[in-house]
Each structure stands twice: as structure tokens, then as C-alpha cells.
Write a structure and sequence with these properties.
Blueprint lengths: L6 H5 L3 H14 L6 H14 L3 E5 L2 H11 L7 E5 L4 H9 L3 E5 L21 E7 L8 H11 L2 E5 L7 E2 L2 E2 L6 E5 L13 E5 L2 H10 L21 H11 L2 H18 L21 E4 L3 H10 L27 H9 E4 L7 H12 L18
Parallel strand pairs: 2-3, 2-4, 4-5, 5-8
Antiparallel strand pairs: 1-9, 6-7, 8-9, 10-11
Bound molecules: pyridoxal-5'-phosphate.
């Protein structure tokens, strides 16, 4: 049995170092912000090649706090890909802003720069560029448009720890970036954790206050802030795991390359492969016209898969007021995507078994009518 993801196995190699880190915090007598958090913030800022890292409670808060810190009038618009993860969309709503969806590129699955301009209105204030699956959005044209229209650019880098775009790291590609260290991410904590990276001094100090009741100085509150602090124990764990991020990303790339070069089943659309060395392969997402049948077949052969994601944001109950909109590319992607097991701890033998199973499945998975699904992309 090859599970889609086994977090126990992921954290096993760090076991001793993590225990030492946790023990260090436990015996320090200092549990909120302080040295462990500052130390991780410094290391992660250096890793991303930015001036500031601000640790917060989770990825959703990271994105929400940046949008709140920018202080746009309520109801202003943020442009985002219509197939983004729900947390990306929620951050816009929670900041009192309105998500404006544009279809992703039909091969990149990322925000399509060619479709942004048509979505800009007098109320547009920002672009949320979600580096979905570990691939960076095409930031050059996105930043050029933002500059032309006076918009802010926020990266959602929650799936892109270590990803590179034109020589720069994710997290250094816009005005600010939100990070999640949810346990399954490329850099994952042992619980909830998140951060913001930015080169903007003013924004950074505002965010440091906002995450801590709006207070930069104890008992003096400049803003009506929040409690969204990166936990000291999680910061200590993240400092341990950050040292191996490039190594684990390299392993992910090697597995992605193996999948890309040896999956030959003609019914499968593989993910884009033009940036293998820059991408960090948080997820390896293939497409198949009968996705559910494929999943069932793989499950029977002992291979766990997952779907990222089954329902587009505008079809979620929470966004019923947007349900009158139509995004055919997104809707088709949500019906066809399947994520194969890809993480630093699966072995070459396991990867080969997945590939062999997929390549040899023939028509065994097909439904009895052998129906063909119409493709729009
Ligand atoms: C995980 C994730 C988030 C949210 O992170 P949490 O820490 O779970 O709040 C946001 N955006 C993307 C793209 C993610 O993958």
C-alpha cells in the first residue's frame, strides 16, 4: 500500500532534532514570540532573500493580515485565479474585499496574465498570485500590469517553499507573500503555522503589530489587531526542517522527473514540465477524463491519491452569491485533476510501481458505456 501522504514518515528523519528543539523551548520558560520565533524569521527571510519575515498563526491569517494591513476600502476588488485554493479566496473575503475570478491558463493551471487586464475595474486594488502545486505564476507580466494600474501584488506561496522564478525565490516576487507551514506543505510544522515575507519596512512593522493585538509596544495598541502569532515550538521545529528544504525539494524534483518521463498512458495529461528545476512539486497533478474511475482503480492497486481540488470556489456553498458565474476551464479542471503520491520519502520502487500501474491499466477502469467526456481545454 502506498499512501498518498504519510506525515509520520515525513517527520521521522528529523525525530531527534525535533525532540531537542521542542525540549529547548519547553525548558526556556519563554513560549510566545521571542528568540525562537525571531530566529526562524531571520532564517526564512534569508532563505527567501527578503528583508522581513513575520511569523503568524497559519497561512490563511498570513494572507488576510497583509490584505488588512493594506487597508483598502471595504468592497474593493482583488483579482485571483478561479481555481485557487479556498483559503486564498477566504483571505480576500475576511479582509472585507471582493474576489474577482479569472480563468487559469489551461496548461499552467495558474493565474493567466493575459486575462487579468479585462478584469481590472476602478475598484481593483490587488492581484493575488497563487503559486499552485509548487509552480510560480508568471510574475513578470503580472507585476508589469500591477505597476501600470497601481495595484498591490500578494503572492500566495503556501505551496511553493523554495520555488524559483527568474532567479528569485517565491516570497520575493511581489509586494508581500503569505506562507503556510501546515504539516503537509513542503516546509511543514507539527501543527498550524504561517508567515509573511516582504521587503516593505512599513508593511512589516504594521504586520508585526497586527499579529499581536495591534501592539508594537507592550500595552500600547496602535491598531485594533489580532492574536495571530507563530508558536515558539513550531518555530523551533521549522528551523530544524528548513535546513533540509532544498534537499527534500531536490528529491521531489527527481520524482516529478521520473513521472514526467515515464508515464506514457495516452489518456493522461501530465503537468507542465518546462520549469522542472525551478518548481518545487508540492503536488503532482495529472488529469484524466474519468478521474473518479482512475482513482478507484489506483486505490484497488494499493495506491492512494487525492484531489486538489474537487469543487471550484464559485461552486462552494460559502460563495453561493457567486454561483451565477461560469468558469469552464476551472470547472473542467476540478472534474479531471488527480494528485499522485509525491513526497521526499517515497522510494524509487514505489514511484515505479505507481508508473507501471498507470501505464498498464488499459481500459480496465472505463465505465461500461465507454463514454467520452467533452474537453474544453
Ligand atoms: C495551505 C494553503 C493555504 C492555507 O494555509 P493554512 O495554514 O492551512 O491556513 C492557503 N493557500 C494555499 C494555496 C494553500 O495551499
Amino acid at each position: 500500500m502506498i499512501p498518498f501522504l504519510d506525515l509520520k514518515r515525513i517527520n521521522e528523519p528529523y525525530s531527534e532534532a525535533i525532540q531537542q528543539a521542542v525540549q529547548r523551548v519547553a525548558t526556556s520558560g519563554w513560549y510566545i514570540l521571542g528568540q525562537e520565533v525571531e530566529s526562524f524569521e531571520r532564517q526564512f527571510a534569508t532563505y527567501c532573500q527578503v528583508k522581513h519575515c513575520i511569523g503568524v498563526a497559519n497561512g490563511l491569517d498570513a494572507l488576510t493580515l497583509v490584505l488588512k494591513a493594506w487597508d483598502f476600502p471595504t468592497g474593493c476588488e482583488v483579482i485571483v485565479a478561479s481555481n485557487a485554493y479556498i483559503a486564498s479566496i477566504l483571505s480576500i473575503s475576511h479582509a472585507g474585499l471582493t474576489p474577482v475570478f479569472v480563468e487559469p491558463g489551461s496548461r499552467t493551471y495558474l493565474l493567466d496574465p493575459a486575462r487579468i487586464e479585462a478584469a481590472i475595474t476602478s475598484r481593483t486594488k490587488a492581484i493575488l498570485a497563487v503559486h499552485l502545486y509548487g509552480h510560480c505564476c508568471d510574475m513578470e507580466p503580472i507585476n508589469a500590469l500591477a505597476q501600470r494600474y497601481g495595484l498591490r501584488v500578494l503572492e500566495d506561496a503556501a505551496q511553493a517553499h523554495g520555488a524559483i522564478y527568474k532567479g528569485k525565490r517565491a516570497g520575493a516576487l511581489g509586494h508581500a507573500a503569505g506562507w503556510s507551514f501546515y504539516p503537509s506543505k513542503n516546509l511543514g510544522a507539527l501543527g498550524d503555522a504561517g508567515a509573511i515575507t516582504t521587503d516593505d519596512d512599513e508593511l512589516a512593522s504594521r504586520l508585526r503589530a497586527l499579529r499581536n493585538y495591534g501592539s508594537a509596544q507592550k500595552y500600547l495598541n496602535q491598531y485594533a489587531g489580532y492574536n495571530s502569532r507563530l508558536d515558539a515550538i513550531q518555530a523551533a521545529v521549522l528551523s530544524v526542517k528548513l535546513t533540509q528544504l532544498d534537499v527534500t525539494n531536490d528529491r521531489r524534483r527527481a520524482i516529478a522527473l521520473r513521472y514526467l518521463t515515464t508515464i506514457t498512458n495516452p489518456d493522461i495529461i501530465l503537468p507542465p514540465s518546462d520549469q522542472i528545476e525551478q518548481d518545487v512539486w508540492h503536488l503532482f497533478v495529472i488529469r484524466h477524463p474519468k478521474r473518479n474511475a482512475l482513482r478507484d482503480y489506483l486505490q484497488k492497486q494499493g495506491i492512494g491519491t487525492d484531489i486538489h481540488y474537487p469543487v471550484p470556489p464559485h461552486r462552494q456553498e460559502a460563495y453561493a452569491h457567486l454561483a451565477n458565474q461560469s468558469f469552464p476551464i476551472s470547472e473542467q479542471l476540478h472534474q479531471e485533476v488527480v494528485s499522485l503520491p509525491l513526497n521526499p520519502t517515497i522510494t524509487d520502487e514505489e514511484v515505479d510501481y505507481v508508473i507501471e500501474t498507470i501505464n498498464s491499466m488499459g481500459n480496465k477502469w472505463q465505465d461500461q458505456q465507454g463514454r467520452k467526456t467533452e474537453r474544453v481545454v
